[in-house]
Design a protein that fits this description.
The protein is an alpha/beta fold. It has a single domain, classed as NAD(P)-binding Rossmann-like Domain (Rossmann fold). The protein has helices at 24-34, 46-58, 73-87, 113-140, 163-181, 207-218, 229-240; strands at residues 7-11, 38-43, 62-67, 92-95, 144-149, 186-193, 251-254. The chain has a seven-stranded parallel beta sheet, sandwiched between helices. The protein starts with 6 loop residues before the first strand and ends in a 12-residue tail after the last strand.
């Protein structure tokens, strides 16, 4: 039990909001709980977030849901305070909450300013807020780990898709600054996935259309398949636990070799 007696908080830990299917955050929450952690599940989606906690409890774990909008400082501070009141400690923070809302598939001239600001406020500032208010509690608890879910988009961008890669590149930089500023008490690392099959990415496609779409994407990857949420959760557990005790400030690419290949298609 690699997280025995540890308290973890995972943001964006509700299942996929479109159909309750898999999400990276919920998979990470399940994985940490399966290894003994007591998990505080944070998400803006109350019903879906509670599903994650219910599943953790069904499998013999302990979890607590706290509805939180990561773009609101008072709600972030409240989530940390509830964690303190309930468990008294915090050993691991996993920042995973992200938004894709708005007209974001635009270049820097075309994107509406309000959509730019919204994505920045959730995808980047949300990570900053949770780090800012969780780190003091982690330090009080004797130290621990922070895992930031970034993206391969921090290194390789798509045409007319400007704001999301900007947030992920900034998250990588934030990861490194935290790693240096708070070592040795806290280790901070990031995971940079390639394409991961999550419920929210499937849009309004039919099941047959989804399978065809996924198969076409898989062809462009050296491993010829798409990453699962469980595979990202496995890396998260590694970085959250003592198995990675000498890894700090790293941004680990988990993309099946796409980044080092000469195939730049997606």
């Amino acid at each position: 039990m690699k997280m025995q007696n540890k308290i973890a908080l995972v943001t964006g830990a509700a299942p996929g909001y479109k159909n309750g299917g898999p999400s990276i955050g919920s998979a990470i929450a399940f994985k940490l709980a399966s290894e003994g952690a007591k998990v505080v599940v944070v998400d803006v989606l109350e019903e879906m977030g509670q599903r994650t906690v219910d599943k953790i409890k069904e499998n013999g774990g302990e979890g607590l849901f706290v509805r939180t909008d990561v773009s609101k400082t008072n709600e972030v501070k409240r989530a940390i305070e509830i964690t303190r009141q309930k468990f008294g400690k915090l050993h691991c923070l996993v920042n995973c909450a992200a938004s894709y809302e708005g007209d974001i598939f635009r270049n820097v001239v075309e994107i509406p300013e309000e959509d730019w600001n919204h994505i920045i406020d959730v995808n980047l500032n949300g990570y900053f807020r949770f780090a800012k208010y969780a780190i003091p509690l982690i330090l009080e608890s004797g130290g621990g780990t922070i895992v930031n879910i970034s993206s391969g988009a921090a290194f390789r961008v798509l045409k007319n898709f400007c704001v999301y890669p900007v947030t992920k590149a900034a998250i990588n930089s934030l990861t490194r600054t935290i790693a240096i500023d708070f070592a040795p008490q806290i280790r901070c690392n990031a995971i940079c996935p390639g394409f991961v099959r999550i419920a929210n990415s499937e849009g309004d496609r039919t099941p047959d259309e989804v399978e065809k779409w996924i198969a076409n994407i898989a062809k462009t990857y050296p491993l010829k398949r798409i990453c699962s949420v469980e595979e990202i959760a496995n890396v998260s557990l590694f970085l959250a636990s003592d198995d990675s005790s000498y890894i700090n400030g790293e941004c680990i690419i988990v993309d099946g070799g796409m980044f080092v290949s000469d195939n730049h298609e997606f």
